[in-house]
């Protein structure tokens, strides 16, 4: 088993939720359970935690790893957090949540132990799938085949901010019949990127992989729905805390929180956002780009 995912901004996100022992909380992104387990430890038997993940592998891992924490007040469910209001009403019809946490993106486990889904550009032999949930239909390879050169270029630019998107999509479409694995794609990307950039950036595939993953999983659409449905279902003075890892996600959260503050429906806990300390970044380099924002419902 690979190393367990290290929860990012753990103390800061728990503090931001202002957890009370009898409260009701939802962790919309269970992952390896790092945040969930610490929320659970703060709850009394009258408290309730619902943890959601769309990836069955994540749920299976947590059920086994945290067996000893199995409790009547911890419900784990496979679903998309976009439907968080419906999930909350079904599983806890009489209570609205006091706090919701969304820790967006992929866990380290999904990158390192991906079950042949090719999330990481370093796993050369894996197929180009990238679906977090087995309920999703379109794989990354399907996109490479179905989209035109121009559409692919737009996708890499819009969701990966990849400056060589045109050169990369041209290379891909010219060699489409030879692309099956992660390695097939990373080699083409490497070929398409100018020599000067190859020496600066040894892994020019990062942005293209991010773009494909975002589209395959409709990550930004789920985030928009998840924010709105979380805010709807929260109780008054309930808190919504979101941790993002790149500017596309953070922009959506920031704008949503600003809109809710301006309309008087909510207020932000922090003037801007909370970022990891230098110490956390040293201990866990994956935390480097994280931003935590919290909205309180008025
Ligand atoms: C960054 S990890 C969470 C890590 C977790 N907080 C921890 O400390 O172990 C994000 C998790 O959210 C899940 N996820 C991403 N988007 C989702 C969505 N729209 N609905 C449900 N789960 C999602 C991923 O499958 C992944 O397991």
Query: Which runs of at least 5 residues are low in confidence (pLDDT < 50)?
Result: none
Strand content: 5-15%
Q: Give the count of structural domains.
A: 2
CATH top level of the largest domain?
Alpha Beta
Order of helices and strands: HEHEHEHEHHHHHHHHEHEHE
* CATH H level, superfamily name of the largest domain: Vaccinia Virus protein VP39
CATH topology of the largest domain: Rossmann fold
Q: Could you estimate the helical fraction of the residues in percent?
A: 40-55%
Structural class: alpha/beta
Mean pLDDT: 95
Distance between the terminal alpha carbons, to the nearest Å? Answer: 44 Å
Spatial strand sequence of the major β-sheet: 3-2-1-4-5-7-6
How would you describe this structure in keywords?
298 residues; alpha/beta; Rossmann fold; DNA polymerase, domain 1; seven-stranded mixed β-sheet; 45% helix; globular; binds S-adenosylmethionine; EC 2.1.1.199; RsmH; SAM-dependent_MTases_sf
Description:
The chain has 298 residues and is of the alpha/beta class. It is 45% helix and 12% strand. It is built from 14 helices and seven strands. Strands 3-2-1-4-5-7-6 form a seven-stranded mixed β-sheet, with helices on both faces. Helix 2 links the parallel strand 1 and strand 2 (48-53). Helix 7 (149-160) packs across helix 8 (165-174), helix 8 (165-174) packs across helix 9 (182-192) and helix 12 (219-233) packs parallel to helix 13. The mean pLDDT is 95. It binds S-adenosylmethionine (SAM). Residues 5, 7, 29, 31-35, 52-55, 58, 80-82, 103, 105-107, 132, 222 line the site of S-adenosylmethionine.
């Amino acid at each position: 088993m690979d190393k367990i995912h290290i929860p990012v901004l753990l103390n800061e996100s728990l503090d931001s939720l202002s957890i009370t022992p009898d409260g009701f909380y939802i962790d919309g992104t269970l992952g390896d359970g790092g945040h969930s387990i610490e929320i659970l430890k703060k709850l009394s038997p009258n408290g309730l935690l619902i943890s959601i993940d769309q990836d069955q592998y994540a749920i299976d891992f947590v059920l086994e790893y945290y067996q000893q924490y199995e409790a009547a007040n911890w419900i784990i469910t496979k679903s998309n957090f976009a439907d968080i209001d419906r999930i909350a009403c079904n599983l806890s019809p009489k209570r609205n949540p006091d706090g919701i946490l969304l820790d967006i993106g992929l866990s380290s486990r999904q990158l390192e132990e991906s079950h042949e889904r090719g999330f990481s550009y370093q796993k050369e032999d894996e197929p180009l799938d990238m679906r977090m949930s087995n309920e999703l239909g379109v794989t990354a390879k399907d996109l490479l085949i179905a989209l035109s050169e121009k559409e692919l270029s737009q996708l890499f630019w819009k969701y990966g901010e990849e400056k060589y998107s045109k050169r990369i999509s041209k290379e891909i479409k010219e060699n489409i019949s030879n692309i099956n694995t992660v390695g097939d794609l990373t080699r083409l990307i490497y070929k398409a990127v100018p020599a000067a950039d190859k020496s600066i950036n040894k892994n020019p595939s990062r942005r293209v992989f991010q773009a494909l993953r975002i589209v395959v999983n409709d990550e930004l659409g789920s985030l928009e729905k998840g924010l709105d449905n979380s805010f709807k279902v929260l109780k008054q003075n309930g808190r919504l805390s979101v941790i993002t890892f790149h500017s596309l996600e953070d922009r959506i959260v920031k704008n949503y929180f600003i809109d809710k503050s301006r309309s008087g429906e909510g207020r932000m806990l922090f003037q801007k956002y909370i970022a990891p300390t230098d110490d956390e970044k040293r201990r866990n380099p994956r935390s480097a780009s994280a931003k935590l924002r919290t909205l309180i419902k008025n």
